[in-house]
Amino acid sequence: MKNNFFKNLLLILVFIFLFLPIIVLIIYSFNSSQMNILFEGFTLKWYKELFNNTDLIESFINTFLVAISSTAISTIIGTISAYGLYKYDFPFKKIINGLIYIPIVIPEIVLGISLLSVYTLMKLELSLMTIILSHIAFSIPFVIVSVRTTLTKETITYEEAARDLGASNYRVFKDIVLPTIMPGVISGATLAFTLSLDDVVISYFTAGPGSNTLPLYIYSMIKTGITPDVNALTSIILIITFIILLSLVIIQSRKIRKEAI
Amino acid sequence: MKKEQSMFKFIFTFPVLVYTFILILLPLLYILFLSFCKSDSYGGIIYTFTLSNYLNIFDITYIKMFIKSSLIAILATFICILISYPFALVLRTKSKHIQNLCTKLIMVPFLTNSLIRTYGWIILLRKNGIINTALINSGIIYTPLSLMYNRIGIIIGMVYTLLPFMLLPVCSSVLEIDNNIIEAAKDLGASKIQVFKNIILPQTLSGVFNGSLMVFMPAIGYFFITDILGGGKIMIIGNLIKNQFLTARNWPFGSAIAIFLIIITIILIKIYKRLGGKMDDLGGF
Amino acid sequence: MKDNVIVRFDNVSKSFNNTNVIKDISLDIYEGEFITFLGPSGCGKTTLLRMVSGLEKVSSGKVFIDNKDVTNVDPTKREVNTIFQNFALFPKMTVKDNITFGLRMKKENPKEIEKRCKEVIKLVKLEGFENRYPSELSGGQQQRVAIARGVIMNPKVLLLDESLCSLDLKLKKSMQVELKRIQKKLGITFIYVTHAQDEALSMSDRIAIINNGVIEQLGTPSDIYISPKTVFVADFIGEANIVDGKVISQKDDNLTLSILNNYKINIKTSEVFKKDEIVKVIIRPEDVKISPNTLTNAINGKITDFIYGGENTKLIIKIDDNNSLKSSVTDEERYSVGKNVYIKFEEKYIVALRK
Predict the structure, then answer these.
(1) What is the DSSP code (8-state) at residue A124?
(2) Domain containing B78 — which CATH number?
(3) Which residue has the higher pLDDT, A172 or A59?
């Protein structure tokens, strides 16, 4: 019994550590003290102030714009690439299979500066578009790897069976392949979305002067001091993402329950 | 029929070709090229071949900084391993349901940006922050500890930000071990420590190395953590590269350091593969 | 030798989440015997085995090994070893390291380890494979490594948990012979767990048929086959025609029954039945004798199906709308589907059981 207590304590401590700064930010978003030091009293004024801070709101919208568009594009390209790499033989396939791991393993800073260099070389003006493009660049491999785990020998069997029954390429992909790899596609998309929201380094190098995202905005404020409306925004982001996550979990467990019945 | 077939193949293979060549290969080849160029004093690039950027890396001040940066990263990696192993071993004793829930929860903090979370640590760690206030108020200490603007702050920040990258692969490799194998070892008289040393450790080595790779490499590059929690006093390789590209504007030298990091990565990957690691498992997501 | 009890279950029960998987089992297992726990999946046979190894704790009752109460002894300290279902070989160790694992954990003298390793490798015929990894071995070779790894510990009892079920049919047959040879040579007790009756019948000295957490019957293979004590056992071991019968009369151990619409049979029994009692009658297919020629005092039936099976082909014979019988024949060329046949029984092997 005692042993069990310590085991559970260990799990809980690790999670407290992981969530500690987030919890602190949420609590301090209700702190009436401007200085952010001690909790003085409950207030909602930072939430009101947040809506007047157009720069902060804009960077928040930009962050989600980048995350959503880069996730959508990298999920589509990643999924068809995973299938293409698994199914077809084509020139440079071996090289590509090696190269796609590079964005996963090299330090983000290396990817960031090399993308920055190439954008400069190609005379691409740094903007929100270049951030999106960069996020696509590092998300695609994660989608490919995650979709690949769901492409198994059985997929080939199903595919052959469908083709044997006269299904067209399009129907085979849409009705047979896509449903079997869907779990991989979803987890790949979730990963792409999460990594995009979390990213600091790559955005830092590939953002243009007018294209503020949340991390860049906060980075610029670190030296001058961060206003508590950032805390308020963090709480809002957390609530939004929690709702999204929760609904995903509920949908998934409903599906599982349905399948069980 | 034949035409449709080749059209299909084109749709499924062309994007990945374009992607890898333009967004992966081209940028890397370009910084490789840059690393052999000269830079003028105004941040421009002179296209003449030189090895001076690489020779520069071996300057004693840089070498010292590389070593310090690596030590910070190694320490952070080591602490991550020390947290992840017990975590994974405890998780192994839990039901499938709890295992799933916990591995999902590990990723949740990522949904708020890591810079924001690092900023959260300021509130916790600074002189008049939560931790110091709590310790003083409870009478454990009298003068506040300096927990940030030094190495301690950087290590805390690195461990915090990168811990999930260690937890995930370590958990997945520990949870993967067949229960029968552990029982077989017990059946043959192995004690708990012997089971860990002889069975669990060898079978999870590639998972731990995987995690180490995913912690160590970012830890030498995450300049924002040294900027925020180190107070800009301590430089890691990431800061150096950042400065070469944004303030000193010596792109060729910055590129040479980046190439140097790529070479280190490749060497570590080779070791990982020799340990039996699979490329698709990297990151352990 | 048979008198030496090596493992004793003393009123052992086990429950998981309030369901009883083992219900008050008492059983003595003797030194040097090959005993099989046979039963369908989920019957509790593996749980019973794991109680010997200590990997499962009992909820109540006691377990003795070699007259010592080991009920609360840790698996690492019991002088028994297990061969696991999927062999559970350590993937990152060579064959030799796998085999010597237990001795190395005991910090045995290296010379001694070397010597014993050579012996068991010879015993299981794995010479030349010492430095291979499990992934480089065939299923049969992996099985041999698993056996060697257990046997090297000189256990008092070797426990085998469905050890042959992952092998293909041909390999299974040869491993059955092999297991029996190793057991004879070592002279130690083997407890074998399986759901496959052919494995149990061909290797065991005794079989314990387990169903729903209780031992339905314990005996030698021929005992169990010839005189099953329950309908479950009759059905589970071998093939059986199970029909209803009505007691007409009993005189000492001679029982007269009426089966299949008033056909009278005389069988031997040690049980006492009441007149007019309805009983279950077990008739093995090989005791259903058929003939294409008209016989007097025989049941008439019609062949509806053939089940080919090498030397022993079975026919399904329809008696009436409710009853069919299976019959083993060796002269199947004389019959064809749709043909009328006459049936008699080898009555001395027929068993009557109380419902």
Answers:
(1) P
(2) 1.10.3720.10
(3) A59
Q: Which of B244, B273, B275 is closest to B57 using CA atoms?
A: B244
pLDDT for the residue C295: 75
* Cα distances (Å, whole numbers) of residue B133 to A23, A227, B143, B154, C280: 17, 21, 10, 20, 83
Instruction: Find chain B residues with C-beta within 8 A of A20's C-beta.
Output: 120, 124
Q: From the list A15, A19, A101, which residue is nearest B279 (CB)?
A: A101
Q: Average pLDDT, stretch A151-158?
A: 81
B185 contact C CB<8A: yes
Say what the pTM is. Answer: 0.83
Task: Indicate yes or no: CB of C81 within 8 angstroms of CB of B191.
Answer: no
Structural domain containing residue C280:
239-354
Instruction: Report the DSSP beta bridge partners of residue C158.
Output: C81, C190
Q: Which among C56, C92, C152 is the top mutation candidate for probing chain B, defined by the most B β-carbons within 10 Å of its own β-carbon? A: C92
Find out whether C5 and C67 touch, Cβ atoms under 8 Å: yes
Measure CB to CB from residue A10 to each of B23, B24, B87 and give the nearest one. Answer: B87
Per-residue pLDDT, averaged over A57-82, amounts to: 94
pLDDT of C220-246, one tens digit each? 988 888 888 888 888 888 888 888 888
Domain membership of residue B25 (yes or no) is: no
Identify the closest residue of chain C to B184 by CA–CA distance. C88
* pLDDT: which is higher, B2 or A163: A163
* Same domain membership, residue C251 and residue C102: no
Residues C219 and C347 in one domain: no
Element (H, E) at C205: none
**Distance (Å) from the C-alpha of residue C87 to the closest C-alpha of chain B?**
8
Residue B5 lies in a domain: no
| Residue B26 located in a structural domain | no
C158 and C283, same domain (yes or no):
no
**Is the Cβ pair B198, C90 closer than 8 Å?**
yes
Nearest CA in chain A to B160: A18
Domain A43-260: which CATH number of 2.40.50.100, 3.65.10.10, 1.10.1740.10, 1.10.3720.10: 1.10.3720.10
C77 touches chain B (CB under 8 A): yes
The residue among C184, C209, C235 that closes a domain is C235
B230: pLDDT strictly greater than 50:
yes
Nearest by CB to residue B282, choosing from A92, A101, A234, is: A101
Q: Where are the domains of chain A?
A: 43-260
Q: Verify that C230 and C280 share a domain, yes or no.
A: no
Higher pLDDT, C70 or B41: C70
Q: Are residues C49 and C194 in the same domain?
A: yes
Contact between chains at B183 and C77 (C-beta distance less than 8 A): no
Nearest by CB: B113 against A83, A110, A214: A214
Provide the sign of the torsion angle of the four alpha carbons A155, A156, A161, A166, taken in this order. Answer: positive
User: Is B16 within the bounds of a domain?
Assistant: no
Query: For chain C, what is the domain count?
Result: 2
Same domain membership, residue C172 and residue C30? yes
Whether residue C270 is found in the same domain as residue C124 = no
> In this structure, are C271 and C192 located in the same domain?
no
Domain count, chain B: 1
Whether C144 shows a pLDDT value over 80: the answer reads: yes
What's residue A189's pLDDT?
92
Q: C274 Cβ partners below 8 Å, 6+ apart?
A: C247
CATH number of the domain that residue C94 is part of = 3.40.50.300
Task: Label residues C68-91 b or e (16+ Cβ within 10 Å = b).
Answer: eebbeeebbebbbbbbbbbbbbbb
pLDDT one-digit tens code per residue, B125-166: 988 888 888 888 888 888 888 888 899 999 999 999 999 999
Is C186 within 8 Å of chain B by CB? no
Please give the DSSP secondary-structure letter assigned to residue A100: T
Give the Cα-Cα-Cα angle C268, C271, C274 (nearest 5 degrees). Answer: 100
* DSSP three-state, residue C54: coil
